[in-house]
């Protein structure tokens, strides 16, 4: 039986004009139950915004947590992406990667903070992404540590370029990272080839531990699909806001 309370929510859709991307970018903003502009709220910024809302059901999970489990109310911002250029924006060696992270940090973030009652404090911001979305979220934090210190990675595509950048840092004790990887992700097909994401995440975990990252790491049965991530999102959200 569907709980109607969980679907009485406000999701605002907007488009941001970007100089860095030379285009507009759709976003969607979830306002928590009882949203009041006089107050202020933590915020989650999601890559693959449309998928996080439609396939991940993040707004439903957050609403249930707030109403049924007393979680802190949170604003969720989903930043959409064109799948045709997703890799070029999200991969650290992609031709549009630098422009995308500048758009995210220097245009999208100020846009949200000027219009919604989000807390302008790095400790109150969480970046979230699946696969390459987890990758770009981590690289955003590495590029802008004064803005982002908390990252959710659902089966992050932490391949060699990312591991090399992590290894170059002497200390990552300022970074808090939630890593989830499915044990059935040993042969993940991507547009660049087939990769063992389990091994990639284990190698990344080792580097992060060496750099003193505040790390939550979990492996469990699951494939590289939204069906796996959707089921795990409530636990992930509770880790930060429960």
**Sheet having the most strands:** 8 strands, mixed
Low-confidence stretches: none
Strand order of the largest sheet: 1-2-4-3-5-6-7-10
CATH architecture: 3-Layer(aba) Sandwich
Q: What is the 3D form?
A: globular
- The number of distinct structural domains comes to 1
The CATH homologous superfamily is named Alpha/Beta hydrolase fold, catalytic domain
Instruction: Determine the oligomeric state from the structure.
Output: single chain
Number of E-type strands: 10
CATH class division: Alpha Beta
Supply the number of helical segments.
Answer: 8
Order of helices and strands: EEEHHEHHEHEHEEEHEH
> Beta fraction of the residues?
15-25%
What would you note in describing this structure?
The chain is an alpha/beta fold and 242 residues long. The chain has one domain (4-241): Rossmann fold, CATH 3.40.50. The protein has helices at residues 49-54, 58-69, 86-90, 97-115, 132-143, 160-168, 197-210, 226-241, and strands spanning 10-18, 23-31, 43-46, 75-79, 125-130, 150-154, 176-182, 188-190, 193-195, 214-220. The protein has an eight-stranded mixed sheet with strand order 1-2-4-3-5-6-7-10, sandwiched between helices. It has a two-stranded antiparallel sheet with strand order 8-9. The longest helix has 19 residues, at 97-115. It is globular. The protein starts with 9 loop residues before the first strand and ends with a helix. The model has no long low-confidence stretch (mean pLDDT 96).
What is shown here, in short?
With 242 residues, the chain is of the alpha/beta class. The chain contains 8 helices and 10 strands. The protein has an 8-stranded mixed sheet, sandwiched between helices.
